[in-house]
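Hi there,

I know you've been waiting on this one. I reran it after we fixed the sequence typo, so this is the corrected version. Both the input and the resulting structure follow.
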Amino acid sequence: MSSKKPQVKLSGSQLTRAQKRAMRSARQLRLSELSRAQKRAMMSAQRTAQRTAQGAQSAATTAQTAAQRTAEKLGPTAGQARDVASTGVYNARVWGAPRLDRAGAYIEKELAPRVGAMMRRTAKRLEPPQPKRRRGMATTLLLAGGALGAAGAIATRHNVARRQAEESASAPSERLSSVSDSESGSSGSDRARTS
């Protein structure tokens, strides 16, 4: 075991010139040794950085080359996949179109009428019954009176029309009789009646 001597730190005036010089030279020696170590470390770091940069550059070149090879291999494959997919889509359309047409015809001709009839039956079941209209005695009498009044008006109109027709048919014979009466000197009351 080595025993270390305790270092005594002296300050300012307590140090002699010789001691000060000795301390300076020791510091300079340490600094020169330290700078050599720093130089060695810097050189080692530079060498490591150069090696790392070279390794990264070669890795990038290798990756780029591999990517180009892969793209060259996959380029035709992608074109073939596009051709196969378009052929598959065409075949699916050829296969599916007639089946969809048949399904549409079935729905139009057979299924839709059945569904429509079923919906109508269901609607009739759901519809509430119509309430029976009960007319009161006053409403019935009013309607009967209105019907009698209308019948009376129609009958009156027919009678008036019949009278006018009779008068127009008998008018020429009355005129002749009135003319003959006037010649014979009949009274003015007969004339008033015919006019």
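Quick highlight: Residues 23 and 29 are 10 Å apart (CA to CA).

Best,
R. S.
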